Amino acid sequence: MKTAYFDELAGRLRDSGVPEDEVAGTVDDLAAYVAESGADPDDEFGTPEEFAARLVPAEGWEPGGKLRYHEYVTRPKAAGLGSDAALRLPPRMPGKRLFWSRRLYVFVSCYFGFWIAVCVGWVAFAPAESRTRFLVGSLVGLVTAAVVAGVTIWRGTRRSE
Fold first, then answer.
1. Which residues, including other chains, have CB under 8 Å from residue 39's CB and lie 6 or more apart?
2. 125-152 mean pLDDT
3. pLDDT tens digit string along 58-107?
4. How do strand 62-67 and strand 70-74 relate by DSSP bridges?
5. What are phi and psi of 42, to 5 degrees?
6. Residue 65: how many CB atoms within 10 A of its CB?
7. DSSP secondary structure string, 35-76?
8. Distance CA 17, CA 105 (A)
9. Do residues 13 and 55 touch, judged by C-beta distance below 8 A?
10. Any residues with CB less than 8 A from the CB of 95 and at least 6 apart, and which?
């Protein structure tokens, strides 16, 4: 076993601000692994400098994962502290319940613009007897779509409460 490797790794972890008990536990686990496997630490982990840099998380927010359409971030120190982590002040409650993107507004605007253009074109170029039926049918379809969208949004906000 190469004790010089683990001594240098422990020193670099201490210099990076890792608490002594975590340094001792990490080095002991790695030394036991190397002793059991018979691997060379330089080949297995890389240089102590590189390996220590990979073991010490950077301060600040980092990606934590994805949940459907949402990404969330974590704080490495808070994740390491577990239940001992505490917030000084709780985060503010958002002012809105629904957060719609600019893309949604563009889509809805383009959709209604297209719908109006079709209605104007139909009224201008269609036979007179079909104009009223077309406008009534398209308005019923528009109202139905608005009701379905409204109920879907309403049910989604009730589930999230």
1. 33
2. 88
3. 555 556 666 666 666 666 666 566 666 666 676 677 677 677 788 989 99
4. antiparallel
5. -65, -40
6. 9
7. HHH---HHHHH--HHHHHHHHSPPSS-EEEEEETTEEEEE-H
8. 48
9. yes
10. none
- CA gap 57, 17 in Å, rounded: 11
Distance CA 26, CA 43 (A): 18
47, 5 contact by CB (below 8 A): no
Question: Among all chains, which residue has been given the structure tokens 């980092």?
Answer: 62
Distance of CA 35 to the CA centre of its chain: 40
Integer Cα distance of 50 and 47 in angstroms: 5
DSSP 159: H
Amino acid letter for position 62: E
- DSSP letter string, 104-147: HHHHHHHHHHHHHHHHHHHHHHS-HHHHHHHHHHHHHHHHHHHH
- Give the CA count within 13 Å in the CB-facing half-sphere of 110: 6
| Residue 122 binned pLDDT confidence (cut-offs 50, 70, 90) | confident
Three-state DSSP class for residue 13: helix
Distance, in Å, from the CA atom of 150 to the CA atom of 1, rounded to the nearest integer, reads 67
